[in-house]
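We store amino acids, tokens; thus:
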Amino acid sequence: QVTVKDSPIYGKAEVPAEQKKGIFVMRRGTSGTLEAVKLVELDTHIGWISAHPSNGCIYACGNGSVYAFRTAADGSLAPLGEAKDGCGNAA
């Protein structure tokens, strides 16, 4: 991530004591509010993520690798195999 010191919000929010990398999955609840489903922890920052239009998978890139996930009925993500080397670094 890039620190933007001239941002109007810079320094107004405390940085959490514990920071994690991964994909935080959320869903819209019945009242329209966002609800946490699961944190899929990874050893890299994800710079790009997209749902495949027909196979039900989620693909993400981070640190020059491509990750694939299967979406479960409850909205959580399960990794499909190991990350594969990709072209470049989207982060």
The mean pLDDT is 84.
